[in-house]
């Protein structure tokens, strides 16, 4: 992986951890998730008319990915109601590249070198440590983290193919934001209209900052997938685990126990090893 792609993926990791912190720190996590998704959709509406559009071959991937990302947003909001970010985030993000590597090996014929499997083992160990170290009060969130990881892995693999077929990585990402943000906004207006509009007026900054963060984070990762193997990009993105741990401790005042710190470090090392394989 070239230095410029490496730097772009690290920036994407920082942005991803940052917008997740916005959701975790908000008073209403579901409505904040809607605001973030809607913010990215508004940016997409403004920018899409001026860009080359994705090829027809990429649209089935766009459609399936949008459905999966809708599910990921909802799982994220529910998981953050049940446990700390410093525990949930590493579980979700650390497990996803493991699943991408496994599927790539056994279904797509993208075989890993021995060092890659060392990375897989490290990620498994870190994830297991986080799950075993969970407090009883956190278990509701932990249980949701694992299906979230499955969804993340699924749309990462799908988008890895779709964005290459699209021949327009920026527009592909913007369409994803529009196709996920618009349904979430429609749901909020239909089911919780008065509450959502009041919340949006006082928390509009969440939509603006979080919307840009989620759009830029995944857009940079998609661009990187056109320049480097999908499994390598997916693994390197999980350096976001370290950014998330720092943000959770500094801004959300979460207590980072020795077990959590060690597990985060092991997952990050495993992700880096997998990327270098």
Descriptive keywords:
0% strand; 277 residues; mainly alpha
Quickly give the structural class: mainly alpha
The pLDDT mean sits at 81
Poorly predicted ranges: none
- Overall number of strands: 0
Portion in helices: over 70%
For the sheet with most strands, the description reads: none
The DSSP helix count reads 12
Order of helices and strands: HHHHHHHHHHHH
The rough form would be described as: globular
- Determine Rg (CA atoms, Å): 18 Å
Give the percentage of residues in beta strands.
under 5%
State the separation between the terminal residues, measured CA to CA. 11 Å
In short:
The chain has 277 residues and is mainly alpha-helical. It contains 12 helices and no strands.
How would you characterize this protein structure?
- This protein has helices at 3-25, 29-47, 59-82, 85-106, 114-132, 139-166, 169-191, 193-202, 204-225, 230-236, 240-250, 258-276.
- The protein has 277 residues and is an all-alpha fold.
- It is globular, with a radius of gyration of 18 Å.
- The chain starts with a helix and ends with a helix.
- The mean pLDDT is 81.
